[in-house]
């Protein structure tokens, strides 16, 4: 009887010890999972930033082209003529230039926003308790 009680107490003591170790390991895994999630978010934002930069460059080229067309139209005497088609064409060209400039500004704002998000994620990662290394295969 005494042996079974001692064995029972030993089993309970060992299970409590292993249970607390498992709880610690689970906490470490949760923190590591959070760090990995932050790293993945950071990589996603960097990819978005590169795409936004490429898109901005395209928009910049379109804006420059539209702006030069608008300047050419405004410097010619077609706007001073009484031809309504020429006037409408000149107005349309100016509107296209303004639209291209607005689009370019939106692209620049998006890049600034993404850069701020990336800095925020990098600071969170630096302050994280555990680091996760990402290796390429």
Secondary structure blueprint with pairings:
Layout: H1 2-75, H2 84-127
Q: What distance separates the N and C termini?
A: 60 Å
Helical region count? 2
* Radius of gyration over C-alpha positions, nearest whole angstrom: 32 Å
Residue windows where pLDDT falls under 50 for at least 5 positions: none
- Measured as a percent range, the helix fraction is over 70%
Mean pLDDT: 80
Major sheet: none
**How are helices and strands ordered from N to C?**
HH
Secondary structure class reads mainly alpha
Strand content: under 5%
The shape is rod-shaped
Instruction: Count the E strands.
Output: 0
What does this structure look like?
Helix 1 (2-75) packs antiparallel against helix 2. The model has no long low-confidence stretch (mean pLDDT 80). This protein has 137 residues and is mostly helical. The protein is rod-shaped and about 115 Å long. Helix content is 86%, strand content 0%.
